[in-house]
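User: Sequence recovery, please. Input:
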């Protein structure tokens, strides 16, 4: 997880991941999106490859880089563990369910106490 966190700490690497979302690209295509040197982009791709976030595929004479988001899962779960919103949503949902159940029971009890007379 530390290696993945270190890899995505850099804004250029995060942008490379965004570029690779849903498509594969050559190093030249990726480098063309940045104002930094091609060797610098290659170093960023190496870091991403070593962290498992990117892998390369050799197709013909071209080497394509492909996103592999699987290593992000552990990091995303760890970050989500700090989100207390979800816990509160569950508690509020439970409270809402209890309020509806209590109202339904109260209506049922009121109807039993005041049965309508058959006046017809």
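Assistant: Recovered sequence (120 residues):
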């Amino acid at each position: 997880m530390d290696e993945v966190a270190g890899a995505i700490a850099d804004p250029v690497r995060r942008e490379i991941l965004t570029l690779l979302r849903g498509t594969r690209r050559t190093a030249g295509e990726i480098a063309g999106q940045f104002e930094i040197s091609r060797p610098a982009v290659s170093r960023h791709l190496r870091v991403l490859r070593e962290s498992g976030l990117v892998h390369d595929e050799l197709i013909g004479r071209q080497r394509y880089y492909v996103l592999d988001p699987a290593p992000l899962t552990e990091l995303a779960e760890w970050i989500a563990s700090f989100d207390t919103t979800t816990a509160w949503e569950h508690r509020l949902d439970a409270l809402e369910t209890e309020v509806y159940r209590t109202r339904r029971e109260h209506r049922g009890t009121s109807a039993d106490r005041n049965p309508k007379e058959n006046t017809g």
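Residues 85-113 form the longest helix (29 residues).
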